[in-house]
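User: Run a structure prediction on this.
Assistant: Running it now.
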Amino acid sequence: MAVDAGRCEGIDGACRERLAHVRRLDTGSERRVGCYASDHAQSALAVEEEIIVLVTAWSNGRPLGSGAGYGLRISAADRDEFFEPCWDSVEIELGPADAVTVSLSKSFWRTCTELRSAAVGRWLMTLGLAPWPKGAPPRLELVRLRGGRFRLIAPS
Protein backbone atom coordinates (compact mmCIF):
# COMPACT_ATOMS: atom_id res chain seq x y z
CA MET A 1 0.00 0.00 0.00
CA ALA A 2 1.48 3.35 -0.97
CA VAL A 3 1.77 5.98 1.74
CA ASP A 4 0.99 9.52 0.63
CA ALA A 5 3.79 12.02 1.37
CA GLY A 6 1.25 14.34 2.97
CA ARG A 7 -0.11 11.60 5.24
CA CYS A 8 2.92 9.97 6.82
CA GLU A 9 1.38 8.92 10.12
CA GLY A 10 2.35 5.40 11.10
CA ILE A 11 5.64 5.27 9.20
CA ASP A 12 9.06 5.09 10.78
CA GLY A 13 11.34 8.10 11.20
CA ALA A 14 13.75 7.06 8.41
CA CYS A 15 10.96 6.95 5.86
CA ARG A 16 9.52 10.26 7.10
CA GLU A 17 12.98 11.83 6.81
CA ARG A 18 13.43 10.51 3.25
CA LEU A 19 10.04 11.96 2.27
CA ALA A 20 10.95 15.28 3.82
CA HIS A 21 14.09 15.44 1.72
CA VAL A 22 12.67 14.86 -1.72
CA ARG A 23 14.64 17.28 -3.81
CA ARG A 24 14.79 18.83 -7.19
CA LEU A 25 18.30 19.07 -8.50
CA ASP A 26 19.55 22.33 -9.97
CA THR A 27 19.76 20.58 -13.34
CA GLY A 28 16.01 19.99 -13.34
CA SER A 29 16.21 16.28 -12.62
CA GLU A 30 14.21 14.99 -9.72
CA ARG A 31 13.84 12.12 -7.35
CA ARG A 32 10.36 10.97 -6.49
CA VAL A 33 10.27 9.10 -3.23
CA GLY A 34 7.40 6.98 -1.98
CA CYS A 35 6.96 4.69 0.99
CA TYR A 36 5.38 1.29 0.57
CA ALA A 37 4.20 -1.12 3.24
CA SER A 38 5.53 -4.64 2.84
CA ASP A 39 3.06 -7.33 1.80
CA HIS A 40 4.43 -9.61 4.52
CA ALA A 41 4.76 -7.28 7.49
CA GLN A 42 2.73 -4.09 7.81
CA SER A 43 5.37 -2.61 10.11
CA ALA A 44 8.19 -3.06 7.57
CA LEU A 45 8.49 -0.16 5.17
CA ALA A 46 10.79 0.27 2.20
CA VAL A 47 11.60 3.42 0.30
CA GLU A 48 11.60 3.35 -3.49
CA GLU A 49 13.10 6.13 -5.57
CA GLU A 50 12.21 6.97 -9.13
CA ILE A 51 15.03 8.96 -10.66
CA ILE A 52 14.07 11.08 -13.65
CA VAL A 53 16.83 12.74 -15.63
CA LEU A 54 15.66 15.58 -17.88
CA VAL A 55 17.50 15.43 -21.21
CA THR A 56 17.29 17.16 -24.57
CA ALA A 57 17.40 15.60 -27.99
CA TRP A 58 20.77 16.11 -29.69
CA SER A 59 21.88 16.35 -33.30
CA ASN A 60 25.36 16.51 -34.77
CA GLY A 61 24.09 19.10 -37.28
CA ARG A 62 24.01 16.61 -40.16
CA PRO A 63 21.62 13.84 -39.09
CA LEU A 64 20.59 11.19 -41.60
CA GLY A 65 17.26 9.60 -42.39
CA SER A 66 18.60 6.39 -40.85
CA GLY A 67 18.62 8.12 -37.44
CA ALA A 68 22.41 8.41 -37.38
CA GLY A 69 23.53 11.78 -36.05
CA TYR A 70 20.88 11.94 -33.32
CA GLY A 71 21.00 11.19 -29.63
CA LEU A 72 20.37 12.62 -26.17
CA ARG A 73 22.24 15.37 -24.35
CA ILE A 74 22.65 14.98 -20.60
CA SER A 75 23.96 17.70 -18.31
CA ALA A 76 27.42 17.08 -16.85
CA ALA A 77 25.91 17.24 -13.35
CA ASP A 78 23.37 14.51 -14.18
CA ARG A 79 26.05 12.42 -15.89
CA ASP A 80 28.17 12.59 -12.75
CA GLU A 81 25.27 11.76 -10.43
CA PHE A 82 23.34 9.09 -12.34
CA PHE A 83 25.93 7.37 -14.56
CA GLU A 84 28.82 5.20 -13.37
CA PRO A 85 32.33 5.62 -14.83
CA CYS A 86 32.74 1.83 -14.88
CA TRP A 87 29.87 1.47 -17.39
CA ASP A 88 30.87 0.89 -21.03
CA SER A 89 27.27 1.25 -22.17
CA VAL A 90 23.70 1.80 -20.98
CA GLU A 91 20.42 0.27 -22.10
CA ILE A 92 17.57 2.56 -23.05
CA GLU A 93 14.01 1.32 -23.37
CA LEU A 94 12.31 3.07 -26.29
CA GLY A 95 8.97 1.35 -25.79
CA PRO A 96 7.47 -1.74 -24.22
CA ALA A 97 9.21 -4.15 -26.62
CA ASP A 98 12.23 -2.16 -27.75
CA ALA A 99 15.50 -1.49 -25.95
CA VAL A 100 18.81 -0.34 -27.36
CA THR A 101 22.33 -0.54 -25.98
CA VAL A 102 24.18 2.77 -26.27
CA SER A 103 27.96 2.84 -25.86
CA LEU A 104 29.47 5.47 -23.58
CA SER A 105 32.42 7.06 -25.36
CA LYS A 106 35.52 8.25 -23.53
CA SER A 107 34.49 11.82 -24.42
CA PHE A 108 31.15 11.24 -22.61
CA TRP A 109 33.16 11.50 -19.38
CA ARG A 110 34.94 14.68 -20.44
CA THR A 111 33.09 17.26 -22.52
CA CYS A 112 30.60 15.52 -24.86
CA THR A 113 27.77 14.35 -22.64
CA GLU A 114 25.69 12.92 -25.48
CA LEU A 115 24.30 9.44 -25.80
CA ARG A 116 24.59 8.93 -29.57
CA SER A 117 22.32 6.38 -31.17
CA ALA A 118 20.71 5.88 -34.57
CA ALA A 119 17.95 3.88 -32.84
CA VAL A 120 17.15 6.88 -30.62
CA GLY A 121 17.17 9.04 -33.77
CA ARG A 122 14.67 6.73 -35.50
CA TRP A 123 12.51 6.81 -32.35
CA LEU A 124 12.58 10.62 -32.36
CA MET A 125 11.66 10.74 -36.07
CA THR A 126 8.86 8.17 -35.65
CA LEU A 127 7.30 10.33 -32.93
CA GLY A 128 7.64 13.47 -35.07
CA LEU A 129 10.16 14.98 -32.63
CA ALA A 130 12.99 15.15 -35.18
CA PRO A 131 14.00 17.14 -37.00
CA TRP A 132 13.19 20.12 -34.79
CA PRO A 133 13.34 23.88 -35.36
CA LYS A 134 16.85 25.32 -35.01
CA GLY A 135 17.71 25.90 -31.36
CA ALA A 136 14.59 24.13 -30.03
CA PRO A 137 15.34 20.44 -29.43
CA PRO A 138 12.63 18.55 -27.57
CA ARG A 139 13.03 17.91 -23.85
CA LEU A 140 12.58 14.32 -22.76
CA GLU A 141 12.64 12.27 -19.57
CA LEU A 142 15.13 9.49 -19.01
CA VAL A 143 13.89 7.34 -16.12
CA ARG A 144 16.55 5.27 -14.39
CA LEU A 145 15.10 1.81 -13.86
CA ARG A 146 18.04 -0.01 -12.29
CA GLY A 147 21.78 0.04 -12.75
CA GLY A 148 22.55 1.16 -16.28
CA ARG A 149 19.02 0.66 -17.64
CA PHE A 150 16.80 3.64 -18.44
CA ARG A 151 13.42 4.31 -20.09
CA LEU A 152 13.09 7.23 -22.52
CA ILE A 153 9.80 9.10 -22.31
CA ALA A 154 8.57 11.63 -24.86
CA PRO A 155 6.98 14.91 -23.77
CA SER A 156 3.23 14.73 -23.27
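The first helix runs from residue 13 to 20.
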